[in-house]
Amino acid sequence: PLQALIIDSWFDNYLGVVSLVRIKQGTLTLKDKIKVMSTGQLHLVDGLGIFTPKRQSKDRLSAGEVGYIVASIKDIHGAPVGDTLTHANRPAAEPLPGFQKVKPQVYAGLFPVDSGDYENFRDALAKLSINDASLEYEPESSQALG
Q1: Global pTM value
Q2: In angstroms, what CA-CA distances link 91 with 4, 30, 43, 85, 95?
């Protein structure tokens, strides 16, 4: 069965979430239906390939290869770094041992000057957190601070 470790993810405005994966076991091909093991969400593989250093599309990724996958994941947290992807119809029994969560070392309270910008600020932090797995945030709203 397929086991692919998500080693990085970033958000593309046109493609949605793009994940960099290492195929540990099995083969991933275009139009495969995959499952994100931590969330149970199912997605269809729309595109995959490798970087050489430019992005180069491929029809399949096999065990040992590192490549990117596009599966129209619109939710920023839909493909967390360290998670395992597997086939929906033949799922792996166990997820791969992923990256350990980094313990936060710096704490800060941030808020927009104009309270009308709160939603945009929260969305920007969400997009930033998908590019940097070490960033952890908790949205908070306050009448005094906005």
Answers
A1: 0.75
A2: 11, 17, 13, 9, 10
